[in-house]
Amino acid sequence: MIRLLKDKLRAERDEWARKEKILEQELLRVCREKSEINKELTAVNDDNKNLLDKLQVLSGLHLQPLGSRSITLKFIADTSRPPPPCTVHRG
Q1: Rounded-to-integer distance, Cα 44 and Cα 32, Å
Q2: The pTM is what?
């Protein structure tokens, strides 16, 4: 009887260890994906900042964020010089 209980406990322990290993692997996979997404978002954010800086230089506009978490920008025109001509490029 004791031997059967020990065997049952061992089988349950092995099953839990197997499930734990699967969960650990899944957690590592999710963490790697999150890290890659964060890298991509950081790169896109940097690109956006660079583009806004270029836009500000090229157009003479001063860009001011409206809020700490807002993506809306307030444009204040520099009236000391005329605006640049607009061109539309269609791909």
Answers
A1: 19
A2: 0.49
